[in-house]
Automatic annotation (TrEMBL):
Source species of the chain: Haemophilus pittmaniae HK 85
One GO process term, biological-process aspect: DNA repair
Protein name: DNA 3'-5' helicase
Documented EC number(s): 5.6.2.4
Cofactor section: Mg(2+)
Length: 205
């Protein structure tokens, strides 16, 4: 069973009513109170992804959302749950082969494991501009800034400079819902910043 099938099967087995973190916990065979209470440790998919990291499965889920095989749906409690789309059925049945990009997690994992090096790796000027944009959006939407994106997510944007939807979905803290709601403004700012940097490099010393 390929990784995409493992994710889709787990989403289906838990009833398509849980978010990414719960699905990943089941995939990796994590024993916690919520999983035990629901009896999900007895599912056939429990632990089938324990050989891969949490970051790996986050990347797989992001790609499947971007490709339209999974959708995020807000529950009655305003929680994002993962559900399969009609396009997922042929993949689940093995009728079509699906090749996903190699998850770009090594550098991201390094940031997670070594936060003391973060400040040396990201563009601080861009980070400041991203924070200002976040405040503008938060004020307009009348929500706390962290609901838009937290500082760690903005720092990662300022390091990797994502310029497309697919690249933005590789950033920790960016899911399809937030990408649709807030992402385009941040992508526009990052593209603009990269263009300014490129122009500056062309200027004679």
């Amino acid at each position: 069973m390929i990784d995409a099938q493992k994710v889709m099967s787990t989403i289906y087995r838990v009833g398509q009513c849980f978010g990414a973190q719960y699905v990943i916990a089941v995939l990796r065979g994590m024993h916690n109170q919520k999983i035990t209470e629901r009896g999900h440790e007895s599912l056939s998919v429990f632990g089938i992804g324990k050989d891969k990291s949490k970051e790996h499965w986050q990347s797989v889920i992001r790609q499947l959302i971007h490709l339209g095989f999974i959708q995020q749906v807000l529950s009655d409690f305003n929680h994002a749950t993962l559900q399969l789309t009609e396009s997922a059925k042929p993949v689940l049945k093995g009728e079509i082969e699906l090749e996903l990009a190699l998850p770009r997690i090594s550098a991201i994992s390094q940031l997670t494991r070594a936060p003391q090096h973060r400040t040396a790796n990201y563009d601080k000027d861009l980070f400041a501009r991203l924070r200002f944009l976040r405040k503008q959006i938060a004020d307009k939407e009348n929500i706390p800034p962290y609901i838009v994106f937290n500082d760690a997510t903005l720092q990662e944007m300022a390091q990797y400079l994502p310029c497309s939807n697919a690249e933005m979905l590789q950033i920790n803290g960016v899911g399809q819902i937030k990408l649709d709601r807030f992402g385009q403004a941040f992508l526009h700012l990052i593209r603009e910043h990269k263009a300014i940097l490129a122009q500056a490099e062309k200027q004679p010393a």
